[in-house]
Amino acid sequence: MAAPQFNKADLERRMAGAVEALKHDLTGLRTGRASITLLDPVTVEVYGANMPINQVATVSAPEPRLLSVQVWDKSNVGPVDKAIRSAGLGLNPIVDGQTLRLPIPDLTQERRKELAKLVGQYAEKARIAARNVRRDGNDTLKTDEKGGHLSEDERKRHETEVQKLTDATIADIDAAAHAKEKEILGK
To answer: I need a labelling partner for 30 at 20 to 30 A (CA). Which of 23, 56, 140, 141 fits?
Structure first.
């Protein structure tokens, strides 16, 4: 007879992972203020490989509306400039020796609305991930009950705990998405 499979700690870890993934996705959205995480998705083709920008340069935010990228190797300035321009972030670097200055332009109202929609899409993706974890947990509980490891009452009690965990996770997701939308829309 197999051992019981239900593991509440694993479900908590996986749901927390969905929230963290959402928060990571949200940090990459431009809000009109300079943030060094804005360049995290940018990869630069140098030394025959694609590398994250933070492996070929130092990114800093010396002013609220300006990013500074200090490229370590002079020969990589061109590829870094090209990578930032082609990343679809709407940024146009100003090359100053080995430093690239990135003024952060104001967001138009139309672009703010697009970004707010994107926040909603990211949040929905995270909610779906949390619900999938809930489904997996409930399926495991049913399997354990069929295998004789749990009584029906224990299964129902655990399902209630899983639902409470799911509700709390979705509340965290909604709070993070709402805060980001508020930041983007400037309200």
So the answer is: 56
Residues in the chain: 187
41 and 65 in one domain? yes
Out of 103, 126, 152, pick the residue that ends a domain: 103
What residues does 102 pair with on adjacent strands? 67
pLDDT in tens, the chain (187 residues): 456 677 888 999 999 999 999 888 887 776 667 777 778 778 898 888 888 888 889 988 888 888 899 999 898 889 999 988 887 777 788 888 889 998 887 778 887 888 888 889 999 999 999 999 999 999 999 999 998 888 999 999 999 999 999 999 999 999 999 998 888 887 6
- pTM reported for the whole predicted model: 0.68
Q: Which ranges of 28-88 does DSSP label H, i.e. alpha helix?
A: 77-85
Instruction: Give me the domain span that covers residue 113.
Output: 8-27+108-185
Instruction: Say if strands 49-52 and 43-46 run parallel, antiparallel, or are unpaired.
Output: antiparallel
Instruction: Return the amino acid letter for 86.
Output: S
CB 15 within 8 A of CB 166: yes
51, 85, 103 — which closes off a domain? 103
Alpha-carbon Rg of the chain, whole angstroms?
Answer: 22
> CATH no. for residue 113?
1.10.132.20
